[in-house]
UniProtKB/TrEMBL annotation:
Residues 182-279 form the HTH araC/xylS-type domain. It comes from the Bacteria. It comes from Cerina litoralis. It holds the Pfam family ExsA_N. This is AraC family transcriptional regulator. One of its GO terms (molecular function) is DNA-binding transcription factor activity.
Amino acid sequence: MPIENIPEIYLDNKEKGPDLFVYDFMMTNDVVKSKVNLSMNMFSFLQVGKKQVHFADTSITVNHEQSLLIKKGNCLWTELLDRDNVYYCKLFFFSEKRLNDFLEKHVDNKPSKTEEIPFFIVKNDRYIISYLNSLNTISSAPTIFLENLLAVKFEEIMLYLLNKYGKRFEGYLYSLISDIKSPFQKIVESNAYSNLKLEEIAFLCNMSLSTFKRYFTAEYNASPGKWLQDKRLQRAKDLLEGGDLKSSDIYLEVGYNNLSNFSIAFKNKFGISPKEIRK
């Protein structure tokens, strides 16, 4: 039984796939126990037929009234036709980076514990049906517009399910994120709140500054200066909102050597001074 690498088999450019990708899958023959390697997390919005998925330590079966969010990795799945000899589902793939960006934007605190469950069942309610129709509507848009529209549609479905299923869905989303970080990421993130300059962090990574900047942008999809400043100022805001600390207590802790520079950067980002946060 060959292994199907998904979504690569659906992509024109198999070396570099998009962060978001939608694929309409239809078949008219039962397929029993395909070996599947998912390289991206995936929504399987089932609309006609049944789907059974076997994971390492559990399995799940859904029908056209349900859909699945499936964690990337290896699994076996069976696709069964309905009475009209048709199977149809819409697959929506998303990268871990997209998921991280969503969680950073919309979820305040990571749960202390997350269950290691490889799937999440979604009920195909009226909103989901309407959502899938909207995906059909935008599918013919030019590529440059489609990429932006998919980014909006990804955030839409995540916000809807977060509102509908609450903490259970939030915990599942965090369970999808790999804890494995590259040595480069470990060095960068362990120094995110230090007062080291970019060239000093680059040195710790055994890179020239220009190489470090290129590598950083490829890894985080942002410039290192902006990424570090945003991290440090958000950390400062969180500390000040605790109510027990002043700017003079924290500016060194969040990577600034000068209180005045910290206060100016803080006001430029948040529109208020650090002192106003504590009022």
